[in-house]
Design goal:
The chain has helices spanning about 35-45, 75-80, 115-120, 140-150, 150-195, 205-215, 220-235, 240-255, 260-290, 295-310, 320-335, 340-385, 425-430, 435-445, 465-480, 495, 525-535, 540-550; strands at about 1-10, 15-20, 25-30, 60-70, 90-95, 100-105, 110, 125-130, 390-400, 410-415, 425, 455-460, 485-490, 500-510, 515-520. The radius of gyration is 47 Å and the shape is elongated. The chain is α/β, with parallel strands linked by helices and about 550 residues long. The model has no long low-confidence stretch (mean pLDDT about 85). Helices cover about 55% and strands about 15% of the residues. Strands 2-1-4-5-6-7 form a six-stranded antiparallel beta sheet, covered by helices on one side.
């Protein structure tokens, strides 16, 4: 609900602050007084293009702010999605600079014009004779039928199910594509796998073979070095072990004179024993070391096979080759069982399609059941608002069962003609602006009790009607305003008398400047204004009495 509108520096408006009622608000005033200016300013927070030439004062920027009570609109998800602070009273603001550049804000947070427009369109709906209305939109026409079918839960379930169906379709297609590609690559994968499997690779084999080959290659050098080491430790004239034994003897001669020396003698004995063991083990290694050309060739051949595969697969170790072998095995296994996976996914798709078709057919049946009632209601209301010969038919085309859309299998089209005997056609081809506006009023009155609607603003939709028809239009707006906020700009006293709140737009001249002003009329002022609308600028007593009667009815 639009609770307040603040306009600064726009067209003939210097500073205007309007608070609106939650029910039916009527705006009246002489032609040219500025009623359309108020709508023009409101359109700025709906995201329409701004033009600096419409500034009241070319030295200041233009600001338009709309204050909206959105508690019942279920818009919290919109605020979360766009990273905005949610407030029950939300403020939409548009600022237009002198160079024509504009900025948009929601609750003081800067936003893009598209985000502002997206939110505003859920809060305000303006209808005039000169606009192509949403009523021409097929999605809106389908929405009208769905609201009356009262199957919101079914529609939500359908939308969830169609996502499941589309995801399953996508998975099946990907599975088939992958399987076909894999089958084309199967022989190649098998060749690579066999090549690796024939080597019987183990993780640490390469390092062990490289160490063994290194030992074989340097066998003579190893034997000479070990023989020299053993000779120096035990066999030479100055062998290390012999010299250590001599040192031990000297220490043992002294330990009887100094008790602490005994510990050193024990340590040296241990060192001699350890050195003898080392010498013996080195001698064993030396004796077992020899160059085996056959074994070297065998190792070189094995390592060459490993290196070749590592180079082929662009890796550096057996561990990586084993991982590739495992991956190839998995691919071959997947190819072997690919047909089964496809068959299983195909079954899931069939089941999903059956569930989706059931929901789509139920929605289609629900829609078919309510369409006659919608047609009858609209024809009745259109007759009461000055179109007694209006014909309307809601055409329901059912698509083939596998052509699911986001809303089911129905295509809804409103066909219309205001003239008796003429062929029905699409609204945008045969309906005038005034006819579309009154049709929209009729539709809104139909669905108002079943869904939360934005603030409706009607701009002179009563043009071309008068008398009892105007009274009927006013009554419908009153009924509509019981469930939503309605703002209407009118020239008809019958319409003006129906409002819960009555606003009068007028011009004032101050200091040679013309200003547009708007004020909410009290009861006495309303009587006078409606009397003027009935008979002219200087109403007589009879006109005033008629105005009172209109307000009382």
């Amino acid at each position: 609900m639009l609770s307040r509108l603040l306009i600064k520096n726009y067209a003939l408006i210097d500073n205007l602050d309007i608070s609106f009622d939650k029910d039916l608000n009527v705006i009246t005033g002489e032609t040219g007084a500025g009623k359309s200016i108020v709508l023009g300013a409101l359109n700025l927070i709906l995201g329409q293009r701004a033009d600096g030439k419409y500034f009241f004062n070319q030295q200041n920027k233009c600001i338009v702010e709309g204050f909206f009570d959105i508690q019942t609109y279920q818009l919290k998800d919109f605020f979360v999605t766009n990273d905005l602070d949610y407030e029950d009273e939300t403020v939409l603001r548009r600022e237009i600079a002198l160079d024509g550049k504009s900025r948009a804000f929601i609750n003081d947070t800067p936003v893009t014009l598209n985000i502002l427009k997206s939110l505003a369109e859920q809060l305000i709906s303006i209808h005039s004779q000169h606009e192509t209305l949403e009523i021409n939109n097929s999605d809106f026409q389908l929405l009208v039928v769905d609201v009356m079918a009262n199957h919101d839960e079914l529609l939500v379930d359908y939308k969830a199910q169609i996502q499941i169906y589309k995801n399953t379709q996508r998975k099946l297609k990907n599975l088939i594509d992958e399987h076909e590609k894999a089958k084309a690559d199967q022989d190649y994968f098998q060749f690579l796998f066999d090549e690796l499997e024939q080597l019987h690779l183990s993780e640490n084999e390469q390092e062990a073979l490289e160490n063994e080959l290194n030992s074989l290659t340097h066998a003579e050098e190893i034997k000479i070095n070990l023989q020299t080491s053993v000779h120096l430790m035990e066999q030479s004239e100055v062998a290390a072990i012999t010299k250590l034994k001599e040192a031990l003897h000297q220490i043992q001669q002294s330990e009887k004179y100094h008790p602490a020396i005994m510990a050193f003698a024990d340590r040296l004995k241990s060192a001699i024993i350890e050195l003898k063991d080392i010498s013996a083990e080195l001698e064993n290694i030396e004796q077992s070391t020899s160059f085996n050309a056959l074994r070297a060739d065998e190792i070189n051949e094995r390592l060459s096979s490993m290196y070749a595969l590592q180079k082929k697969h662009r890796v550096n170790s057996n561990v990586e080759l084993i991982a590739i072998q495992t991956e190839l095995s998995d691919k071959l296994q997947k190819i072997s069982f690919g047909d089964e996976d496809i068959q299983q996914m195909g079954k899931e798709l069939v089941n999903s399609k059956q569930v989706l078709a059931q929901k789509a057919q139920q929605m289609s049946s629900n829609r078919a059941n309510v369409i006659p009632n919608i047609e009858s209601y609209l024809i009745d209301i259109l007759g009461r608002v000055g179109m007694p010969n209006a014909q309307i038919k809601i055409d329901q085309s059912i698509l083939p069962i596998d052509q699911f859309t986001k809303d089911g299998i129905d295509q809804i089209k409103f066909l219309f003609n205001a003239n008796k005997g003429h062929q029905l056609n699409e609204l945008n081809k045969v309906a005038s602006g005034g006819e579309l506006s009154r049709l929209m009023l009729s539709i809104k009155s139909l669905i108002a009790k079943k869904t939360a609607l934005p603030t409706l603003i009607f701009d002179e939709i009563d043009t071309g009607v008068s008398g009892e028809v105007a009274n009927s239009v006013g009554n419908i707006m009153q009924q509509l305003a019981q469930d939503m906020q309605v703002i209407t700009i009118t020239h008809l006293p019958q319409m003006a008398s129906k409002g819960k709140a009555h606003y009068f737009v007028h011009k004032e001249i101050k200091n040679d400047f013309t200003y547009t002003q708007i004020k909410r009329l009290n009861q006495e002022e309303r009587i006078l204004e409606i009397a003027k609308m009935l008979s002219g600028e200087n109403p007589k007593e009879s006109a005033i009495q008629n105005a009172k009667e209109l307000l009382e009815n």
